Amino acid sequence: xxxxxxxxxxxxxxxxxxxxxxxxxxxxxxxxxxxxxxxxxxxxxxxxxxxxxxxxxxxxxxxxxxxxxxxxxxxxxxxxxxxxxxxxxxxxxxxxxxxxxxxxxxxxxxxxxxxxxxxxxxxxxxxxxxxxxxxxxxxxxxxxxxxxxxxxxxxxxxxxxxxxxxxxxxxxxxxxxxxxxxxxxxxxxxxxxxxxxxxxxxxxxxxxxxxxxxxxxxxxxxxxxxxxxxxxxxxxxxxxxxxxxxxxxxxxxxxxxxxxxxxxxxxxxxxxxxxxxxxxxxxxxxxxxxxxxxxxxxxxxxxxxxxxxxxxxxxxxxxxxxxxxxxxxxxxxxxxxxxxxxxxxxxxxxxxxxxxxxxxxxxxxxxxxxxxxxxxxxxxxxxxxxxxxxxxxxxxxxxxxxxxxxxxxxxxxxxxxxxxxxxxxxxxxxxxxxxxxxxxxxxxxxxxxxxxxxxxxxxxxxxxxxxxxxxxxxxxxxxxxxxxxxxxxxxxxxxxxxxxxxxxxxxxxxxx
Length: 512
Hints:
CdaR-like_regulators; 4 domains; Alpha-Beta Plaits; disordered N terminus; 49% helix; Beta-Lactamase; PucR_C-HTH_dom; elongated; 17% strand; PucR_C-HTH_sf
């Protein structure tokens, strides 16, 4: 990250302070010398770990080692290592001359930097030096954060402010920054993409595992609600945050930077401004929605040719025939416009609001696109195929029927829609008429305890066969014959004729 140079609070930084005259007393690796130090504490307790926090440097005069065996020294150092102590300073010439050799050996084995604090250097001077380094680091980070936010504000004022802000954030963090839209597609990216060695990894790794980051972004969008995540992907730290109202407008992703408190404050400011920009884009999208609705009106008026020309001028292209025509529920899920806009920008999809839903048109071979939209948005969508422009209006009506029979999160083809033709005729008026048709039959059953309606239903289901109906009902076939004859008289129908049989069967299906 870009910061004002300031000595980092580390063991190496303490050793570099000449006025302290500290001397490294045990061999150790660079990582241990450069690990961050949060504080310096002094103690001569045999076990100071209950009183220590992680990432501290411990100073001691060695009183606890006056008569200690080497194994006691080993146990002491192991406890320090387990507690997360970053270094051990030994004050010489206080209770003993020099550093005990068993302590050198134990620190070397544990990987804890051991350094000598000469008699003329008080422990308080070492603690003060560490405190100064910590304060300088904190001041540098706060100064960087203020400068970064100022630079980001200036970037936002540029003509390409949206993209410029993301580019400036990448520069300030020295990290890859990506923006995913509501559909989970990567729309903007800035920063390093080359392969590089990451600290702590076994070797070179891809600087940005964009597929894995995209999968995490899509998962966040599905959850919504202003959520965020911090993960490691491909050996890199990755931070993600949803944007906009309900966390459904997009995701800001940052890869390759460990974000401290000040960096997170800068990112939060960008999340707020970017989310606001996305919301403003959504508001201006209202005009485009009006145009789309007008084009849908043209399509339903059999003027697809004109609608195609206008759509091609506005968005670059229009799907080619044969078409798959889809109708989705009018109550569009959050983020639906962004998802549809993404596919519409590629020319694969046209969409617009219909009188009772959302009309979508894609090429017939692009059915998987609609499946993905339904699953992504948990939307109920019905589809039908139109082989030419002239078939689109009729296909829309069939798709609407399929939608009404379908389920959320799935695409239902009109040919696979549950129910049958009679279900489509089941209007309130038809049900009333059917009940009136059966009224005499039902009143007789209620008055005399007969089962004429049940017998008639079973008889029609068995193609008018008395023997099969008798077996189904568990009665004698002569009983069936007598009941059917009585039902004919009550209904005033000739059940030997197909039209009357069909009328009675329809009444039985539709009557409430």
